[in-house]
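Holo prediction — magnesium ion.
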Amino acid sequence: MAKAAIVAPTDNAIAEAAALLRNGRLVAFPTETVYGLGGDATSERAVSGIFTTKGRPRFNPLIVHVPDLEAAEAIGEFGERARVAARRFWPGPLTLVLRRRPDSGIALLACAGLDTVALRVPAHPVAQALLRAVGRPLAAPSANRSGRVSPTTAEHVALDLGGHVGLIVNGGPSEVGLESTVLDLSGAAPVLLRPGGVTLEALEARIGAIATAVADPTRPRSPGQLASHYAPRLPLRMNATTAVPGEALLAFGPQAPPGFAEVLNLSPRNDLSEAAANLFAMLRRLDRPDFAGIAVMPIPEHGLGRAINDRLRRASAPRD
Ligand code: TXA
Ligand code: MG
């Protein structure tokens, strides 16, 4: 297949992308978290194409994107807690796992055969425009090869999936930079399946205590919990305070330890949102064969730091 076209998000480009999507084709588009590889969530064929293109295991279900709460209510069963969370955090980086309505119309493959569905209303204006133009829900995982670092620019998508996706709509760098928070509200008690762009603290302030899914890599409750994920090619070392010869450093805060082959700083002013926005792009920039590995300074385990550390732990997990 020819190299993917990166196009500016003009009205014409949105209309072209919507037409492709209605024909079962895949389009990469920007969201405020990361770029998504979108396909018609009601088409088994389109959804199947997403799994093939990403090289993603088919037991790992996809997030279904819709333009608003009303469209989401046609697909998932909302209880009071889900409505409170949706009203507060949508549009935005929150995904709700809910029981799937029998008449949802969503391709079973998108939910990996589960009786639940993951729903998200993205805030990015280009994602919103595209969803409204298509008029159908879009299944969209991050637009990278399965297991690799998620894309936060159109160029990242082109590098990863260039030959395999017809169109990449450019919406600039993703503002949040980390995937959405995945919150399971399908059972009696809320469970955090993936920390992300909405902090646990902010969620708990709205809906009360949230349990954290016990990470059992052999039986992932959210298949995104698979241990090795979001991985650069180089080995990654967390909580680094001193240099190892040849390593590159991902620093955080005003003072970086000396002796590293190269240093990029996630946020010299200790700002976790700035660090989240920089994380994936900087990991990619340091993922060069002339370094021995990537070391990362300690990141505080609160707020967005929880999601940053989650991605770093997966990136440093043993690979299979
Ligand atoms: O920010 C995001 O969420 C991005 C953008 C494109 O919206 N999308 C994204 O999708 O990160 P993906 O496919 O890379 O991650 C989806 C996560 C996975 O961890 C998956 O296991 C979980 O959501 N998931 C999806 N459906 C689920 C379900 N029914 N039950 C439990 N977990 C589910
Ligand atoms: Mg992903």
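READOUT: The chain has a mean pLDDT of 94.
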